[in-house]
Amino acid sequence: MRGLARREFCLVLLRRMADVRPDLVAEALPRLGATRAEAHAAHTRWQAMHHAPRAPRGLALRTAVLGPPDELEDRRFGDLDIQVRRWPVPLWPHLHWELLTGPGGTVLNEHLVRMPGSPVPRASAGDLRVWEHVLDDVVGLPGAESVDPGVVTRWAIQLPGGVRATFVWGLLQQVEGPQGTASFV
Q1: C-alpha to C-alpha distance for 104 and 72, rounded to whole angstroms
Q2: Does residue 66 contact residue 97 with C-beta atoms inside 8 Å?
Q3: Would you say which domain of life the source belongs to (predicted)?
Q4: C-beta neighbour count of 129 within 10 angstroms
Q5: How far apart are CA 170 and CA 37, in angstroms?
Q6: How far apart are the C-alpha atoms of 174 and 183, rounded to whole Å?
Q7: At how many degrees (to 10) do helices 58-66 and 36-51 cross?
């Protein structure tokens, strides 16, 4: 594998998701026409690009891999001007990869978000859909509390009744009930 593009970028995202849901990652590889070896090669190439002294950094690296964004939006948060960029990703047709950048192209945050007009039904405490709902779908539910697990690619939401939703790159990976039993919707 010489370079990376959107397909390979999906393989990179799957690497972190495999830590939580290896079963779903194994099912996803054929949908991308990829093998485990190709997924490993994509992740290795991504890591090499992050550590190579001459490789692009931040926004430039993402643009080199993903191409120009399909959407670009200027936003202001307090005193900070940011830009929001979004790209479709081939594995999840109802999602976009979203990148928030600050001055000079500094990457502030990046994760999967819902596309407008998505056919996925709204999330509710009783209906959380693994690999369909995203962080923004769940964080706004009544009584939801964000939990930072301390890993940049992961996030969790604690819901009333002891339900915990775990996300990787903003995509719901698992839902655990109050007795610690995992339920996968």
Answers
A1: 15
A2: yes
A3: Bacteria
A4: 14
A5: 25
A6: 7
A7: 150
> What's the token pair of residue 24?
């779903």
- Model confidence at 185, pLDDT cuts 50, 70, 90, reads very low
**pLDDT over 70 (residue 181):** no
Mean pLDDT of 116-130: 90
Higher pLDDT, 185 or 18: 18
Cβ neighbours around 35 below 10 Å, total:
12
pLDDT in tens, 53-70: 888 888 999 998 999 999
Of 95, 131, 117, 124, which Cα lies nearest the Cα of 21?
A: 131
CA separation, residue 140 to residues 17, 35, 125, 160, 182 (Å): 23, 37, 11, 13, 22
Q: Give residue for tokens 């994760």.
A: 111
Residue whose pair of structure tokens reads 């080199």 in the numeric block: 64
Residue 172, C-beta contacts closer than 8 angstroms, at least 6 positions apart: 128, 129, 130, 131, 132, 133, 134, 135, 137, 138, 165, 166
Res. 44 pLDDT band, cuts 50 70 90: very high
